[in-house]
Design brief:
Largest sheet: 9 strands, mixed
Number of helices: 0
Shape: elongated
Radius of gyration: 14 Å
Low-confidence stretches: none
């Protein structure tokens, strides 16, 4: 799930753990983004580093939820993405992405868990 953020440089990605084990070690997760950026033709590919503070071309573990849509916070093992829980990953890009173009986000955890989502900015 992708939720547009402020302007055209920041957005949230909601990841649901529908696997069979808890996921953690967010510092070891890889996030890549493919997008068209403002003012240049062609596609931009970016690998984003995990950070404690959101700055350009990074992402943070924004919040963990038992159910994001119903605003139910996580209850067990704070900081760990348990089965059926959801994590909000906040991403900030520079250069900004071009409005009305596709953005492809791929998230990979060290366990091999990978998910890809596409949204139109």
């Amino acid at each position: 799930t992708t939720v547009s953020g402020s302007g055209s440089s920041q957005f949230d990605v909601v990841v649901t753990n529908d696997g069979r084990r808890g996921l953690g070690d967010f510092d070891d997760w890889d996030i890549t983004v493919r997008y068209d950026h403002v003012g240049a033709p062609g596609e931009t590919f970016a690998w984003l580093a995990h950070s404690d503070t959101l700055v350009d071309n990074t992402w943070i573990t924004h919040s963990l939820w038992l159910d994001y849509a119903d605003s139910q916070p996580e209850l067990i093992e704070a900081g760990l993405l348990n089965i059926h829980e959801e994590v909000v990953l906040r991403i900030q890009l520079d250069p900004k992405f071009q409005m009305a173009t596709p953005v492809v986000i791929t998230v990979t955890a060290p366990t091999g868990y990978t998910c890809t989502t596409i949204f139109e900015s």
